[in-house]
Amino acid sequence: LQIQFANMEDKQEFSKYPTKAGRRSLSRSVSQSSTDSYSSAASYTDSSDDETSPRDKTQVNTHGSSDFCVKNIKQAEFGRREIEIAEQDMSALISLRKRAQGEKPLAGANIVGCTHITAQTAVLIETLVALGAQCRWTACNIYSTQNEVAAALAETGVPVFAWKGESEDDFWWCIDRCVNMDGWQANMVLDDGGDLTHWVYKKYPSVFKKVRGIVEESVTGVHRLYQLSKAGKLCVPAMNVNDSVTKQKFDNLYCCRESILDGLKRTTDIMFGGKQVVVCGYGEVGKGCCTALKALGAIVCVTEIDPICALQACMDGFKVVKLSEVIRQMDVVITCTGNKNVVTREQLDRMKNGCIVCNMGHYNTEIDVASLRSPELTWERVRSQVDHIIWPDGKRVVLLAEVIFKMHLPTLMSEMENEDVYCGILNPVLNLRGTCALVSQGRLLNLSCSTVPTFVLSITATTQVGSVVASPPVAVLLPVVIQPFSALQALALIELFNAPVGRYKQDVYLLPKKMGEPLFFRIHCCSFWGDGIPDCVDVSSLSSDEYVASLHLPIFDAHLTELSDEQAKYMGLNKNGPFKPNYYR
């Protein structure tokens, strides 16, 4: 057996362990550190509580810059390999980067971002930089950051402030460091959940005097933007990417359909066949979860407040119930409503042993995790991101991705003058046989405890980039999907940043069906078809959603059928599109 070492330091370290047992110990430690981002569900060990906080470390990248705060800058090389793997499944976004970097449609854009920091979002961030933007970035969730990816971004010169397992205080400190930088003024905001937007509104309202627009990608964040708009407090334009067609259909539905299974398997090793599962909410996320679980043999029922969604669930073969009436029989409880107190303490007390409760919404507020920190309940750390919560009668709740949320939440809520606005720090509840298990402490399960499909994120990111390029003050709805999702983010940013003054008011918008800048279509035509655009394709006629979708069809070797003139006239359509009306969602 020949072992190849990445560098001499690894070889010297390995030589210190002459015995097989010693080398196995070293191998485990290397494995745990080098795959840190994925250890939440697989590792039985955890970082030492006495480990130095990244905030207390002095780190410098190879360019001499210290304007970042990550777990370990030495993980940059490993993170770069992760990013390169993601790029292989994000070809449309990479093509956009290569073709458009000469045009620099984001030159002059100073983008402050608060999203999940993963290999996929790193591809988006580096695309924004290639298109001319300067970026500062932080995480929207304290558990979803891939430490090695954050290090790789910091190594390239992107100021990143994030690491996996932040405390609540760390979370807000990182956001503050991104925004509050001498000599740098943000003029675009890319947010996921609204925490960055609200922090700036409360702490640095003067920043919005120069901000051209906000791009928001989550249900929760969009809801908060509409609250600001209704109260007359939204002083810049905003784009709602979440409600775009591609985001709803691809990211919310297809992405969650795969990642819910991945997250549950990694955290609990559950076998789904025959399990009683209740999914709270039958929106696009709920539909994806139900479809996946049913396919593996689970017996799925749904809770809903909306009669239309409830009827859809019935027509899809799911029984619609009230949670309080079935909670005792359920093996798994999944929340995906975007609301608060969906699973209450009273319902947690009534769960059967082995019930798994997890959250697929953005915040931890869907599950009443705070009520579990009561004197009569005992908490035991079992392994990385797994805690047992023990009832007096011996029943156990297993809490994954346990969070330190005892710090400033009440204070923060009062500062934000809205008890319905919560920071994106907590997420899921899971349960093992003989126990009631809380996964990721009610935090977002698929990003806290596993990963999500790269292809879908590409769609969303492309949309977000488009919105940045065209904006005045307003909120806009953008199309999103993973590879397609990245595409949506890109389009939204480009649209907002480059929009002429007056196009968008101080309100929340959906990404326009037709982009206003010819540059946008020229760039994207070239990025997808190169110099030879097919005669049958008039890119300028496509809607933004249709355009993003078209960018990703070649990956599947998909070929569109072209309408004849007679067919187009009969349907009342332009034969080259758009094919969906403005009201289609």
Key terms:
single chain, 585 residues, alpha/beta, Rossmann fold, 9-stranded mixed β-sheet, 7-stranded parallel β-sheet, 22 helices, 12% strand, globular
Overview in brief:
The protein is of the alpha/beta class and 585 residues long. It has helices spanning 8-15, 20-34, 39-42, 76-88, 91-100, 119-130, 147-155, 168-179, 195-203, 219-230, 245-268, 284-295, 307-315, 323-326, 345-350, 409-415, 445-448, 454-468, 483-498, 518-529, 544-552, 565-571; strands spanning 110-115, 134-139, 160-161, 188-191, 213-216, 238-240, 276-280, 299-303, 319-320, 332-335, 356-359, 378-383, 386-390, 396-400, 435-438, 475-476, 508-510. Among the domains are: 55-247 and 485-498, Adenosylhomocysteinase-like (Rossmann fold), CATH 3.40.50; 270-405, 3-Layer(aba) Sandwich (Rossmann fold).
How is this structure best described in words?
- This protein has 585 residues and is of the alpha/beta class.
- Among the domains are: 55-247 and 485-498, Rossmann fold (3-Layer(aba) Sandwich), CATH 3.40.50; 270-405, Rossmann fold, CATH 3.40.50.720.
- It is 39% helix and 12% strand.
- It is built from 22 helices and 17 strands.
- It has a 9-stranded mixed beta sheet with strand order 9-8-7-10-11-15-14-13-12, covered by helices on one side.
- Helix 15 links the parallel strand 10 and strand 11 (356-359).
- Helix 11 packs across helix 18, helix 18 runs parallel beside helix 19 (483-498) and helix 19 (483-498) packs antiparallel against helix 21 (544-552).
- It is globular, with a radius of gyration of 24 Å.
- The N and C termini lie far apart (57 Å).
- Residues 16-49, 401-450, 466-484 and 516-540 have low confidence and may be disordered.
- One of its GO terms (biological process) is one-carbon metabolic process.
- Residues 27-46 have a biased composition (Low complexity).
- Keywords: NAD, One-carbon metabolism.
- Residues 252-452 form the S-adenosyl-L-homocysteine hydrolase NAD binding domain.
